[in-house]
UniProtKB/TrEMBL annotation:
Catalyzed reactions per annotation: 5-phospho-beta-D-ribosylamine + L-glutamate + diphosphate = 5-phospho-alpha-D-ribose 1-diphosphate + L-glutamine + H2O
Record-linked InterPro entries: GATase_2_dom, Ntn_hydrolases_N, PRTase-like, PRTase_dom, PurF
GO molecular function, one term: magnesium ion binding
Family affiliation: In the C-terminal section; belongs to the purine/pyrimidine phosphoribosyltransferase family.
Entry's Gene Ontology BP terms: 'de novo' IMP biosynthetic process; purine nucleobase biosynthetic process
Biological pathway: Purine metabolism; IMP biosynthesis via de novo pathway; N(1)-(5-phospho-D-ribosyl)glycinamide from 5-phospho-alpha-D-ribose 1-diphosphate: step 1/2
Source organism phylogeny: Archaea, Thermoproteota, Thermoprotei, Desulfurococcales, Desulfurococcaceae
Native organism: Ignisphaera aggregans
Its EC number(s): 2.4.2.14
HAMAP family with a match to the protein in the record: PurF (MF_01931)
Protein name: Amidophosphoribosyltransferase
Coiled-coil regions listed: none
Pfam family, one: GATase_7
Known function: Catalyzes the formation of phosphoribosylamine from phosphoribosylpyrophosphate (PRPP) and glutamine.
Keywords: 4Fe-4S, Glutamine amidotransferase, Glycosyltransferase, Iron, Iron-sulfur, Magnesium, Metal-binding, Purine biosynthesis, Transferase
Length: 462
């Protein structure tokens, strides 16, 4: 669930760096382990800057200031949430491949390539330490076989990848190419006004910068910009299956994904959950921030007041996307509690999902410690039971709370709650409202013909 962005322009006196930094700030919720940018000047010269941490850590690099004076054609950027390779900045993006100065490419992508080792073997790629290195080397190799045509390379790549990706590619020609896999697992949108071409993982980032006339890249879409015109092609594929977890947790509330409002889905999921619940509660407390819209829908449906019983520490980032070892620490430090909102009350604690259970158990325990009579955990998504191989860092069933304890009473006990309830898969699909979506993390049915969870776990490793 990384964040990717791109910007290219023919306008004079336009700060490519300022635009890409702004976009990455708006996408920081999609990754906080590392960040980076790559620029290509109009003469094809490339510069890359990466740093551990957020985009603000990247801004502290003194050498980055030199980029502000470069006559840039375009720039791409990335905020990292690791799903392959090491954690932190071990695989920071963008990465540049190609020793031949006449054709180098910089690549940043969001997703996971489950069969990257197989692709490396088939294409003779020696550097296969992670999926991003294989993806980048594969794009360049296939492009060289097609007369340095990155568009043709991405069309070929789309037919051999098992996994999900949205990618931005900057070439030394110079040219900017963006692409989304044929299943459309991960979001990607762009805007073009005749002088500026801008792309970002989420529509909200584009709108904040004033690019209101955005277009979502279709599943299998490949968009190319050379400074003169925009070329749009679509790689052949099967029925799109966009990620349902983008609606549940990953994407920002003010984003649109496949024409569907993220806010509308979360609000609807909370409302539907309320109609399935008969527990007596006095107050509804959201787990901020991603659980807030679902809690509002639940509150409206039950006719029970919503109280802000938790105060989030905004300087700690999102606990779910923290590397292992940091999650338990973040769970303890991330939230403050408003005693007056919950004391002597039966609390419906509403969140979007439970994956590992680390954060929810800490919250429920603390609520009871400060005086809540009862804590009833209410989750607006179905139980997260299976790992994702398309862009979310849950690579093993051992990490999944709902997989380990299928009985709801046992789950409630592990969470230190009086009860726990989830929405079901049918409700999630109905509220999203698309003809199809990827629900594999809830059902174990992956949209790759003939492949089971065991096959994918054997295929993929960090």
């Amino acid at each position: 669930m990384c964040g990717i962005a791109a910007f290219a322009t023919t306008k004079k006196n336009t700060s490519c760096l300022g635009t890409i930094i702004s976009l990455l700030i708006e996408l920081q919720h999609r990754g906080q382990e590392a960040s980076g940018i790559a620029t290509v000047a109009k003469d094809g010269t490339a510069h890359t800057y990466v740093s551990k941490g957020t985009i603000f850590d990247l801004l502290g690099m003194s050498s980055l200031l030199e980029t502000m004076t470069v006559d840039a054609f375009g720039v791409i950027g990335h905020t990292r949430y690791s799903t392959s390779g090491g954690y932190g900045d071990s695989e920071a993006q963008p990465i540049v491949v190609g020793n031949d100065s006449s054709f180098r490419i910089a690549v940043a992508f969001n997703g996971t390539i489950a069969n990257y080792k197989q692709i490396a073997k088939e294409l003779g790629i020696k550097n296969c330490r992670s999926d991003v290195t294989v993806l980048s080397e594969a794009i360049r190799k296939l492009a060289l076989e097609s007369g340095k045509d990155v568009v043709e390379a991405l069309k070929t790549l789309s037919s051999i990848v098992i996994g999900g990706y949205s990618a931005v590619v900057l070439t030394s020609e110079p040219r900017l190419v963006i692409a989304r896999d044929p299943r459309g697992f991960r979001p990607l949108s762009y805007a073009y006004n005749g002088e500026e071409f801008v792309a970002a993982s989420e529509t909200s980032a584009l709108e904040v910068l004033g690019y209101d006339d955005w277009v979502e890249v279709p599943a299998g879409g490949i968009i190319s910009y050379d400074g003169k015109s925009v070329e749009v092609v679509t790689a052949p594929g099967e029925c799109p299956t966009p990620c349902a977890f983008e609606y549940v947790y990953i994407a920002r509330l003010d984003s649109v994904f496949n024409g569907v409002s993220v806010y509308g889905v979360r609000l609807g999921l909370g409302y539907e959950l309320s109609k399935r619940d008969s527990a007596e509660v006095d107050v509804v407390v959201p787990v901020p921030d991603s659980g807030r819209a679902a809690a509002l829908g639940y509150s409206r449906g039950r006719g029970v007041p919503l109280e802000e019983g938790l105060v989030v520490n905004r300087y700690l980032g999102r606990g779910f996307i923290m590397p292992p070892g940091m999650r338990e620490i973040i769970a303890k430090l991330k939230y403050g509690f408003v005693r007056s909102a919950v004391s002597e009350k039966r609390v419906a604690l509403v969140d979007d999902s439970i994956v590992r259970g680390t954060t929810m158990a800490a919250i429920a325990s603390r609520l009871k410690h400060i005086g809540a009579r009862e804590v009833h955990v209410r989750i607006s998504s179905p139980p997260f039971r299976y790992p994702c191989f398309m862009g979310v860092d849950v690579a093993s069933r051992k990490e999944l709370l709902a997989w380990r304890t299928m009985n709801l009473g046992d789950v409630a006990c592990m969470l230190n709650a009086d009860s726990v309830a989830f929405n079901n898969v049918e409700t999630l699909a109905k509220v999203i409202g698309l003809p199809s979506a990827c629900l594999a993390c809830f059902t174990g049915r992956y949209p790759f013909k003939g492949l089971t969870v065991d096959d994918l776990e054997n295929m993929f490793s960090r």
